[in-house]
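Sorry, explain these tokens?

***
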Amino acid sequence: MIGRIAGRLDYRGPDHVLIDVGGVGYVVSVSERTLAALPGAGEAVALYTDLLVREDLLQLFGFLSLQEKEWHRLLMSVQGIGAKASMAILGTLGPEGVSRALTIGDWAAIKAAPGVGPKIAQRVVNELKDKAHTVMAMGDLSGGGAGPDLVDAAPSAHPAPQPAASSPSVGGAQSQAEALSALSNLGYGPSEAAQAVAEAAQSEADTAGMIRAALKLLAPK
């Protein structure tokens, strides 16, 4: 299994790139979003990859982060979602958008991807909504697109504050911590995330339910 490629970007196509690794060129299929984030020809580049193996085909797909790669693998586990549809969803929404859509059950957002109909979009939400918080907790462990070095995955020097211990809650401390981490990885500030999780914990006990409730509280009115 080829899990990551780092080398020099030789060529940019409409839906793929050619990466030179020690004199060997690898053709890697990428989404429009990933393609837009990559540097120009001749620059250093690093991508996490997933290898699709068929009787008549070996195809590499490239991703800027491990989180995006994991969403690709989960999306492809849904009946009716192949590699093309998965890349279309990720190219339209990005990993953060997929996380939000599945967490709050927004199948219309999934349907916005080219080639994805309403029935398939609803199936994606129904089958993957309970797995969203696990992938969201991975955060943005990205290769950064440019440069062969992996991102420093060390914990932030400024972790999000935990909800006050004195607040009465249904949800346990572990679930609240996981929900806070997921919201932080989606870009919410520590204060607003902590407040939303603390309120959501009054009625939700598990991580997935807590995240869904918190996102509804944080949604624009």
Remarks:
- The first strand starts at residue 4 and ends at 12.
